[in-house]
């Protein structure tokens, strides 16, 4: 049996990552105290979500235990499409802990960003890859050329010469790296979503795809606000999956990072599991926003963002309480919702066909085995 590969997220994780919840959170409190002492000019992104609620409680508990610890600057980034439940909860949380949570809005709102660049679809990686494919007009058929080529390195070089300055798009479509080596199972390629290339080939999108709205409404405004601080604190957790569960170039444990510009990024909850969160919420009586406690959402993030596979279902949970925000989300992201449903239906049909074909092949093999047994 071949050895199972495990990323540095698993092999380099700290000892406290495997502790039970009480001991794990005790360790995290100590880590927070240490980093706040060492890097007193700290800013923390507070979203009003469940992870942020656990994080601010830990930070303020650490400051209560050690009164000499410096205060943390808290910021809430309002994209312009936020639930009232979230905005109300941000205010209530600030009052609960006696802190200020500054609300910051982007210069380019979500409506303008989507109108100028496109709508997110499936994931940020998928959106970026498809945005490049749409802009450059590279035919999807290059993936077939690459797959059929015996010398894949030579074919990859030829594609690079045929489509200059399109390295990442070629890799995305052909599921390879720039050296021509196949990379079919990583998140950076189109096949990270099953049958996606076939679906798009048969059902080309009639709208522009892009995740630039995230850049304009969150990343750029966050960079501007955070640039003068020594340490940036966020509530990322490995259990969220996606790119948050992948090791980064400048970090192994993914809890504390020194960036190239001299800032530090601190993710105190990185190894906190969903089960750990449940324990902490019950033990310290943390109340999440009405989006969780009343509406029934399991996570919030950007309201209605099509990157969430549950976006449409979640909007239906929100609708009885905040119909206007649901209407706004459909006006902004509706094309992506509809296209994703079409993709999901296509994928399900292909998977049923594949399952049926495998069953037929296995049935034929059983029949021939039976005949051989009689001879």
Layout of helices and strands:
Elements: H1 8-11, H2 21-38, E1 42-45, H3 50-65, E2 73-77, H4 84-97, E3 101-104, H5 110-117, H6 124-136, H7 142-148, H8 152-162, H9 167-174, H10 196-202, H11 212-226, E4 231-233, E5 256-258, E6 264-266, H12 274-283, H13 290-293, H14 311-318, H15 323-374
Parallel strand pairs: 1-2, 1-4, 2-3, 4-6
Antiparallel strand pairs: 5-6
Helix pairs in contact: 2-3, 5-11, 6-9, 7-8, 14-15
Which descriptors would you attach to this protein?
six-stranded mixed β-sheet, 375 residues, globular, mainly alpha, single chain, Rossmann fold
Walk me through this protein's architecture:
By secondary structure, this protein is mainly α. Among the domains are: 8-108 and 213-292, Rossmann fold, CATH 3.40.50.620; 122-202, no CATH class. 52% of the residues lie in helices and 6% in strands. It contains 15 helices and six strands. The chain has helices spanning 8-11, 21-38, 50-65, 84-97, 110-117, 124-136, 142-148, 152-162, 167-174, 196-202, 212-226, 274-283, 290-293, 311-318, 323-374, and strands spanning 42-45, 73-77, 101-104, 231-233, 256-258, 264-266. The chain has a six-stranded mixed beta sheet, sandwiched between helices. Helix 4 links the parallel strand 2 (73-77) and strand 3. Helix 5 packs across helix 11 (212-226). The model is unreliable at 1-7 and 242-252 (pLDDT under 50).
């Amino acid at each position: 049996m071949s050895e199972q590969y495990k990323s540095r997220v698993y092999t380099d994780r700290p000892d406290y990552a495997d502790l039970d919840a009480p001991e794990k959170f005790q360790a995290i409190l100590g880590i927070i105290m240490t980093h706040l002492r060492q890097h007193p000019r700290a800013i923390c992104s507070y979203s009003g979500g469940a992870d942020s609620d656990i994080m601010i409680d830990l930070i303020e508990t650490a400051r209560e235990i050690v009164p000499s610890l410096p205060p943390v600057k808290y910021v809430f980034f309002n994209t312009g499409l936020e639930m009232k439940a979230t905005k109300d909860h941000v205010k209530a949380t600030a009052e609960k802990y006696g802190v200020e949570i500054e609300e910051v809005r982007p210069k380019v709102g979500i409506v303008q960003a989507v109108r100028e660049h496109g709508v997110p679809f499936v994931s940020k990686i998928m959106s970026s890859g498809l945005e490049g494919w749409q802009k450059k007009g590279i035919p999807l058929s290059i993936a077939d050329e690459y797959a059929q080529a015996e010398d894949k390195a030579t074919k990859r070089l030829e594609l690079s010469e045929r489509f200059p300055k399109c390295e990442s798009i070629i890799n995305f479509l052909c599921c390879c790296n720039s050296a021509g080596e196949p990379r079919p199972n990583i998140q950076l390629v189109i096949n990270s979503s099953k049958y996606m290339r076939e679906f798009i080939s048969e059902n080309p999108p009639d709208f522009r795809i892009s995740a630039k709205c995230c850049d304009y409404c969150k990343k750029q405004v966050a960079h501007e606000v955070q640039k003068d601080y020594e340490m940036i604190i966020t509530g990322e957790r490995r259990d969220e999956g996606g790119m948050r569960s992948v090791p980064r170039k400048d970090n192994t444990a993914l809890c504390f990072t020194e960036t190239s510009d001299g800032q530090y990024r601190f993710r105190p909850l990185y190894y906190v599991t969903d089960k750990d969160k449940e324990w902490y919420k019950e033990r310290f009586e943390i109340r999440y926003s009405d989006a969780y406690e009343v509406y029934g959402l399991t996570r919030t993030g950007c309201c209605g963002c099509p990157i969430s596979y549950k976006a449409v279902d979640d909007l239906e949970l929100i609708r009885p309480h905040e119909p206007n925000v649901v209407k706004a989300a459909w006006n902004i992201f509706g094309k992506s919702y509809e296209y994703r449903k079409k993709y999901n239906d296509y994928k399900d049909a292909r998977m049923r066909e594949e399952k049926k074909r495998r069953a037929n092949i296995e049935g034929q093999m059983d029949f021939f085995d039976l005949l051989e047994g009689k001879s």
